[in-house]
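Hi P.,

Sorry for the delay on this. The queue was packed all week, but I finally got your sequence through. Input first:
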Amino acid sequence: MIDENVSKTMNLSEAWTRRGIDEAIKIILAEKNTLFDSLTKNLNNYPDLKAAIRSILMEGIKLTWSPDNKEIVQMEMYGLVRNDHNSVRVANRIFETRLYNLFLSDEELKSNVFAREGELKKNIFIEDGKLNMRLIMERFIETYTQVCGPLKERFKEKDGREQFLLYLKPIINGTGNYYIEAQTRDQTRTDVIVDYLGQQYIIELKIWRSERYNVAGEKQISEYLDHWNLDTGYMLSFNFNKNKKQGVHLVHVEDKLLYEGTV
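Then the structure:
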């Protein structure tokens, strides 16, 4: 894909860089081909496993690997999942992103208010070819509060995660990619990584538990930014405290800048 397609839109030396790889992935994810058709068909043939994989990706649920489970063995045979330290895991990151897009599309069909909002205001979030992630978080918080009202105790982190991705997806659609970092995907914390025109943005999504946990989270994302050689990160917390102050503010953590948003 890089050799035959991407190299026609940028010079050859640039095509064989991270940006060229991102462009190739974007093209692949937009394709309709027999591989992706087979993936969707097989999932539809096993609705229970489709629901389980959705829980793995969207909620951070752990599904134990079982060689005696017919559906798991069948999905492994199709190349959809693999055994990762005795847990079921989607076979590769491109499949993961394709499945995220599928599950989010299902949610859009139910209620697409967040998708419409992001699409309508898309242009205000792009400045000189870069995402204004702080503004995206600010507008998401405003929209979420208007549409959904105060957070309820039945709220789960996956709910906020899905709504934020529904808001983000039309803004970066056609230009950027996103994926969920598997190492931090659980029921307490998720890191969304966005690639947009060669620039990476790390957004940590979590439920607010206490100031102590928040400080620990700041340290975690600071270390994660070191791994990516970035100096700016983003945190979005869903906070049930009635006395909370909504919005986005800037925090300095050692040599890093964190924009922390509170819903």
